[in-house]
Amino acid sequence: MILVAGDAGATAANIFTHELLMRAGVVSNLFCQVSFVFLVLALNRLFHGINDKLAKLMLALVISAVPIAVVNELCQVAALEFSSRAPYLAVLSPEQRSALMLTLLNVHQSGISVAGIFWGLWLFPFGLLVIQSGFIPKVLGVLLIVGSFSYLIDSSVALLAPQHGSAVSDILMLPLALGEISMVLWFLIKGVRANGPVASA
Fold first, then answer.
1. At what angle do helices 94-133 and 138-160 cross, to 10 degrees?
2. Closest residue by Cα to residue 130 from 79, 185, 57, 54
């Protein structure tokens, strides 16, 4: 973990020590967001004819989430900039730079919670589409809906009562991830037949 809550000095030291790791994290996060767009486009095509209104809502929520998550990575980029040895930063003391780095990473964490609202919302129409599809087990749709509410609770607590955010995240970790992981495994192992049954909306 790069971020050490409440400790600007330790956070700055971690950024200095693990700069390449942090940069790799930024790049991989951006790659994930680009992949997210292609994923929802593929799902939109998969569920075509099931319920077009839900499919469009799912697509819109993902398209809304991606720019938030992408722009949020600029907080980490800015923190890395303050960790550089650029001459123009000499006007700031090491303590000031450390405080700025910690602040930016804290804002980044809050940005994840903001994006998490949309990550939760998109799972709701996704889950309903799975339930209505007729070619994916309904239980997976139910798990996605449970994950949707878990994301929403987790992000809401993190934004409204951040002092309790970590404890709530620990409790919600399993229901939050179970639906998405189950869907990934089902697609990888079982897959969808091109000529599978399609339920009407």
1. 150
2. 54
Question: What's the token pair of residue 151?
Answer: 């994301």
Q: Which among 198, 16, 53, 182 has a CA at the least distance from the CA of 128?
A: 53
| Burial of 12 (C-beta count, 10 Å sphere; 0-12/13-18/19+) | buried
Task: Tell me which residue has tokens 């709530």.
Answer: 168
pTM of the model: 0.84
Asked which of 42-51, 71-80, 139-148, 172-181 is least confident by mean pLDDT, the reply is 172-181
Q: Which of 126, 114, 124, 123 is nearest to 65 (CA)?
A: 114
**Phi (first) and psi of residue 59, to 5 degrees:** -60, -45
Tokens 């869907």, residue?
183
Check residue 52 and report its DSSP letter: H
Report the amino acid identity of residue 102. L
Cite the beta strand spans of 112-176 per DSSP E: none
From CA 102, how far away is CA 55, in angstroms rounded? 39
Q: What is the pLDDT of residues 21-72, one digit of tens each?
A: 999 999 999 999 999 999 999 999 999 999 999 999 999 999 999 999 999 9
CB 143 within 8 A of CB 37: no
Using alpha carbons, select from 123, 124, 119, 122 the residue that is nearest to residue 68.
Answer: 119
